[in-house]
Write a structure and sequence with these properties.
By secondary structure, the protein is of the alpha/beta class. The chain has 12 helices and 9 strands.
Length: 294
Amino acid sequence: MAALGNPTNTIAVLQKYHFNFQKKYGQNFLIDANILEKIIKAAGVNENDCVLEIGPGIGTMTQYLCEHAREVVAVEIDKKLIPILEQDTLSAYDNVTIINEDILKLDLHALVQEKNNGRPVKVVANLPYYITTPIIMGLFESHVPLDSITIMVQKEVAERMQVGPGTKDYGALSLAVQYYAKPEVMMTVPASCFMPRPNVDSAVIKLTRHAAPPVTVPDEKFMFDLIRAAFNQRRKTLVNALGNAAGLCLEKDSILCALEKMECAPTIRGEALTLEKFAVLAQLLYESLPIRRR
C-alpha cells in the first residue's frame, strides 16, 4: 500500500490503474502531505470520531483520516476509483467503509444510525467546485446529525460563506451557512498543491454546527425562499424582488408594511439585511399569508 500525499506515489497509483481524470466529477487530488495533516488537525478528528468523507478520490486524505478516527465512511461517485480504494490504497485499514454512491442520493440518516448510533458525525471533504453548494445545503437541510463540516472549496466560495451584509460576496449561501453553523476559514491552499492543477486557489473552511439556530422563525423553508428571492434579483429593491417572485405570491403592500414595521426604508435591498432581519421579515410576512398558503 502506497502512502499518498506526494506527487510520486500519486502518479504511481494513477499509472498502475490507468486512471484518467473525469472532468465531470471535478477531480483534483491533493499532493501535499503538510496540507493534509493541517486539514485533519483543523477538523479536530480523534479516535472517538466517526468521519464521513465525501469524494475520497484515490484515498489520499482517507489514509490520514483512518489513522486518526475510530471509523471512516468514504462515499465516492466514480466507480473507476473503487478498485483502487478497495484493493490498494485503503486495503490495510479495517476501519473504513467505501460506498460507491452519489452523496446527494444517499440516505445519510440511515448511514449515521448504522455507523455511529445516530450520534453526530464529522464531515471532511475535498469537494468538487461545481457541486459544493448543493452538498453543503443538502447536509444542513436534511438535518443529519452533524458535529462539523471541514471542507476544501474554491477560495471565493469559502469567503462567501463567512461574510456579512453590504459586501459583494454576501448572499443566500452566506445566510444559509450562518443559520446552521459557525464558519471559519482555516487556511488557504495554492493551486500547486493539486493534481491536476485547478485554475484557482482553494481554502479549507470549518463549519461548526450550531446547537440551535441563532434565529427563530415559524417556517424555515419560507425564510430561505425569501432569501433566495431577494438575491436572485439582488440589484432590485426587496419589495420588487420579493413581489416578483412567482413562488412566494406576496403582495407588495404586505412587503412594504412589514418593512415599515421593521423601520427599514422601502428602497432597501436584500444585501443590506442581516440574518436576524430576514428572520423578522419572514415572521411578519408569514403572519400576513392566508392560512391555506402556510
